[in-house]
Write a structure and sequence with these properties.
elongated, mainly alpha, two-stranded antiparallel sheet, 146 residues, single chain
């Protein structure tokens, strides 16, 4: 408040208006619209990231075993062993497709050309992949997909 000549004058500003039911409803609707707009922006921003993750899981591949161990076989427990080792399987000539790995791990499907024992050995190898090994990123993206 500003004091002039010993009397108090109100500060300049918009006149005070008593809220009516109509203006309160209008403010509530405006607030809801703001929230909805922010929510829409978040959905639009997140959707492409989800789509990219889904595509990368489908298009990636996992070499079994990694190329530095070419010529080795895979034992039932997923370990890499010398060729012709008992209870070991000759690995696929080409890397396994991410989608095939996902289906095998999630639904128990077999890899084309391999019986259930060989498929199980390859899956055990894949489950043992760690950061830095070929195929780990693909395996991690498959696990994160619903």
């Amino acid at each position: 408040m500003i004091m002039r000549n010993e009397e108090q004058l109100p500060e300049a500003g918009p006149p005070a208006v008593e809220p009516t039911g109509e203006s309160e409803g209008l403010e509530t609707r405006r607030g809801l619209l703001r929230i909805a707009t922010l929510g829409t922006a978040a959905i639009v921003t997140i959707k492409p990231g989800i789509a990219n993750a889904a595509v990368s899981g489908i298009t990636c591949s996992i070499p079994v075993p990694q190329t530095s161990q070419a010529g080795k076989w895979i034992k039932k427990d997923g370990s890499v062993v010398n060729p012709n080792t008992k209870d070991a399987y000759d690995p696929p000539e080409t890397p396994l497709a991410g989608e095939d790995v996902k289906n095998s791990l999630a639904y128990g499907t077999r890899y084309s050309g391999y019986d259930s024992n060989a498929t199980s050995a390859f899956n055990n190898y894949i489950k043992k992949l760690t950061i830095g090994k070929q195929g780990y990123t693909c395996y991690a993206s498959i696990q994160s997909r619903p």
